[in-house]
C-alpha cells in the first residue's frame, strides 16, 4: 500500500532512525513528524485511557498528538528534525498509567 503522504525531496540524503524497534531510512534534516508519516508510520502513540491511536495533527507544536519518546524524554515529533541515529519509542507503550 502506498503511503498517504509524500516526501518533498525524494532525492534527499537518508539516514537510519529507529522507531518502535524498526529501522527506517528517513531524509536527513526533514521534519520528523512529516518524515514518519511519509514512511507510513501513522500511529505515533496511543491515548492513556482508551488506547486510541494518535498521529501528527497540527504540525506546529500546539496539539501534542505527535508525542514520542527520545532517550527517555517526551518530545513533539513535529518540532524535531531527522538526524542520524535517533532512537524513538512510542511513549509509555503498554503503560495503562500514562498521564499524557
From TrEMBL:
Protein name: 2Fe-2S iron-sulfur cluster binding domain-containing protein
Keyword Oxidoreductase in annotation: yes
GO molecular function: iron-sulfur cluster binding; oxidoreductase activity
Keyword Oxidoreductase belongs to the record: yes
Species, as recorded: Roseovarius tolerans
InterPro entries per record: 2Fe-2S-bd_N, 2Fe-2S_ferredoxin-like_sf
Top-level taxon of the source organism: Bacteria
Keyword line: Oxidoreductase
Pfam families per record: Fer2_4
Amino acid at each position: 500500500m502506498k503511503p498517504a503522504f509524500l516526501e518533498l525531496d525524494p532525492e534527499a540524503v537518508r539516514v537510519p532512525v529507529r522507531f518502535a524497534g524498526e529501522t527506517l531510512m528517513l531524509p536527513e534534516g526533514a521534519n520528523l513528524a512529516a518524515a514518519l508519516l511519509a514512511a507510513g508510520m501513522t500511529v505515533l502513540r496511543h491515548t492513556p485511557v482508551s488506547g486510541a491511536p494518535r498521529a501528527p495533527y497540527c504540525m506546529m507544536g500546539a496539539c501534542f498528538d505527535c508525542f514520542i519518546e527520545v532517550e527517555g524524554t517526551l518530545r513533539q515529533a513535529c518540532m524535531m528534525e531527522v538526524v542520524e541515529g535517533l532512537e524513538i519509542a512510542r511513549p509509555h507503550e503498554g503503560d495503562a498509567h500514562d498521564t499524557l
